[in-house]
Specification:
Elements lengths: L4 E5 L3 H13 L3 E5 L2 H11 L3 E4 L8 H8 L6 E6 L4 H9 L4 E4 L4
Parallel strand pairs: 1-2, 1-3, 3-4, 4-5
Helix pairs in contact: 2-3
């Protein structure tokens, strides 16, 4: 059985590693990207089943990444961010995110 692949785009290295460790324990194949400027290339080259995307990233923000990939990437996009305003959530979903979750997650 092929494992589901996940790319976590998160600039908080410790948080990214914790998420990666937890998801790998659940039998997912997980890769990390810490720089927004490289995320578009990695997503379109690797084509993971799911992208977990932070909004505040160095190089390129998560909203721009979502906008840039959505028309070419058909997988799932989960925005996981500390930005909690309704406007951010609406914009994220309108740009093509499949879900929007705020940190810290309960």
């Amino acid at each position: 059985m092929e494992r589901i692949s996940i790319l976590i785009v998160e600039d908080d290295i410790r948080l990214g590693e914790l998420l990666q460790e937890y998801l790998q324990e659940q039998n997912f194949s997980v890769e990390l990207e810490h720089h927004g400027g490289q995320a578009v290339h990695r997503i379109l080259e690797e084509i993971p089943d799911l992208v977990v995307l932070d909004l505040m990233l160095p190089g390129k923000d998560g909203l721009s990444i979502c906008r840039d990939i959505r028309h070419r990437y058909k997988g799932l996009i989960l925005m996981l961010t500390s930005r909690k305003t309704d406007v951010d959530q609406i914009v994220g979903l309108e740009l093509g995110a499949d879900d929007y979750v705020t940190k810290p997650v309960d």
